[in-house]
Amino acid sequence: MRWERIPLGPLQTNAYVLVDENGTCLIFDPGSEGEKLIQHIEANSWTPLAVLLTHAHFDHIGAVDDVRNRWSIPLYVHKKEQHWLTDPMKNGSLLFMGEAITTNDADVLFEGEDMLTIGPFSIQVLETPGHSPGSVSYYIEDAQVIVSGDVLFSGSIGRTDLPGGSYEQLLQSIHRKLLVLPEETVVLCGHGFETTIGAEMDTNPFLNGF
């Protein structure tokens, strides 16, 4: 099992594609430039099974319908942010971009921390609010990765000054849900480069002294 990072759009939001040995894959956070993402997947002859969102801010949802329509695959999102998909005020696109970025309703809404089984993939949902109310991180133990969205970055953490954000809650999410994972776990961040749980425990200035 392997993964690829594909930065998309003006904010270079990272979409991630998790691929198994047979070429089936999951798409995380297709934020923009849908045709670019589709071409990359088709060039590798991968077969997507689903789209999963870490949260529903505009820069993480812009290409959802492009890829969903191309392969007729379901979209997963936390129940708390289901209406953000269709509301450009809630997802921030009108405020930050001056235009409405929306997507159709999700096919699968979840809450809690269930294990998702999608084809050959087993994904542990971890509720990690703080950046947004419905932010989740996806832990794929078989691949030793955590898809963290905008919760944890290399040397930083997600912003908490947006609607529904909470600095205290974000730090609690990181410490209680992410830093308890094996230190070698690779963190697939929503922006920038990857890191590991161990590296952030040792060097992230936002996490010291909490």
TrEMBL record:
NAD among keywords: no
Pfam family, one: Lactamase_B
SUPFAM superfamilies: Metallo-hydrolase/oxidoreductase (SSF56281)
Keywords of the record: Hydrolase, Metal-binding, Zinc
InterPro entries named in the record: MBL_Glyoxalase_II, Metallo-B-lactamas, RibonucZ/Hydroxyglut_hydro
GO MF term list: hydrolase activity; metal ion binding
Transmembrane regions: none
Domain Metallo-beta-lactamase, chain residue ranges per copy: 12-191
Cofactor: Zn(2+)
Superkingdom to which the source organism belongs: Bacteria
PANTHER family found in the cross-reference section: HYDROXYACYLGLUTATHIONE HYDROLASE GLOC
Protein name (record): Glyoxylase or a related metal-dependent hydrolase, beta-lactamase superfamily II
Organism of this sequence: Anoxybacillus suryakundensis
Lineage of origin: Bacteria, Bacillati, Bacillota, Bacilli, Bacillales
